[in-house]
Design a protein that fits this description.
The protein is mostly helical and 106 residues long. It has one domain. Helices cover 35% and strands 0% of the residues. The N and C termini lie far apart (33 Å).
Length: 106
């Protein structure tokens, strides 16, 4: 089985702690969000970045999950992690809801 990559490894953005662009552009909140550590088998918020407020996607600070949900659900990282995790895919930081629970309530 291939190693499951975090968002900053997939995008090669350099915005993780100690990354090539972290001093110049800042560290992304997905890389520092320790409360999400382990979610979808990732480091910090690296495999649940859509649920982390203030991520630095597309060269600008993003908002909360509610503000960026539509865009994130179309993101290649979201779709890749969703596919890799299959039925164990988690969409929220608190990990109390699975994607199936979230979509059942829509």
């Amino acid at each position: 089985m291939a190693k499951k990559l975090n968002c900053w490894e997939i995008k090669k953005c350099g915005r993780e702690t100690g990354g090539l662009k972290s001093k110049e552009l800042g560290v992304c909140s997905a890389a520092t969000d320790t409360k999400s550590n382990g979610a979808n088998s990732g480091k910090n918020g690296g495999r649940i970045c859509w649920a982390v407020a203030g991520t630095l996607c597309g060269g600008k600070v993003q908002g909360t999950f509610a503000e960026k949900e539509k865009t994130c659900r179309q993101c290649s990282i979201y779709l890749q992690i969703k596919e890799e995790e299959g039925p164990t895919f988690k969409i929220f930081n608190n990990l109390t809801k699975t994607l199936a629970e979230a979509t059942a309530n829509k």
